[in-house]
Amino acid sequence: MDEGRKQDHLCPGDKPVCDLCDTKIDHELSKCLACNVYMCRTCTTAHQKVLATKQHNIVARVEWEPSKLQNVSQMCKTHKDEEIAFYCYTCNDFICSECILGDHKGFCESEEKRNKCKTKHGDIIATDNNKPSLHKLTKEGVKTQTISTSPLQCTGICEASAGKLLVCFLDKLSYVVDNSSRRLVSKITMGGNIIESYEHHNGSRLFTWPQGVSENINKDICVVDRTSKTSGRLVVMDKTGKLKYTYEGQKLPQPFDPFYVKCDKSGHVIVNDFYNTKVHMLDMDGRFIRYIADENILKNDPFSLEFDKNGVLWVGCYNGNVYKLKY
């Protein structure tokens, strides 16, 4: 039997099997597109750390729990007749089997995540996975404007005060940084004109891979800085771009592994910690307050964060589950 196709021979009701260790899986099952193998969570983690395979693209099988995914359509938005079967955390999107066999492999060849923010006027500003640009869409999803950011690629984005945007930029999708590298956060107008950029502090580089950004109620600029494929830190500047503090997590079994940062109405800084299965809460000065959620609540690694208009925190997890948290 083809080692990458064991799952195709399962009978209805059978548990999926890891192609690497033959373990039967209760929930999560990931697939490496490069190796064409399905893996359990343990093997997936190892696969992402081994030098020979750490750059491979991996998608995660979705185990549908309708009560936790009421806001997600079960039909693929690209292939309308196909049910969603995977969650691709490379592209931060739900996809079907046709996506895997067809264009999605090329679509997520690099590690960048699509990010988007909704403005106070209801428009959506989204980054682009494939080319250096931002897209403005109506709330119905109709594209109304494209802003080129060439030669810099956009990653994180948020709406800032006074109708401006904060955008994370980098010149190359790589954790390797040299003297010529560009890794920065810029404040721009809705039309794409740069107002200010923040790249260095006292002659030292602020970021390795700025991934997510959020503005606090005191106008602090909070940035998730990815320092490797499995670790990162939080970099917080004041409204002038002066470094206030960095936060590198708590003493936990795995390195601090953030992707998203959000700020609540009270000025608390909320940041996910993927591999440690926690959501951290800090005060405005970077002091750790507590974990809003951990493995006892989430049951899976938290990947994305968002507040709704009522101040409820939505947490999206690696296996596709979505949790609504009040604290």
Automatic annotation (TrEMBL):
InterPro entries: 6-blade_b-propeller_TolB-like, TRIM45/56/19-like, Znf_B-box. Residues 71-105 form the B box-type domain. It holds the Pfam family zf-B_box. SUPFAM superfamilies: B-box zinc-binding domain, Calcium-dependent phosphotriesterase. Keywords: Metal-binding, Zinc, Zinc-finger. This is B box-type domain-containing protein.
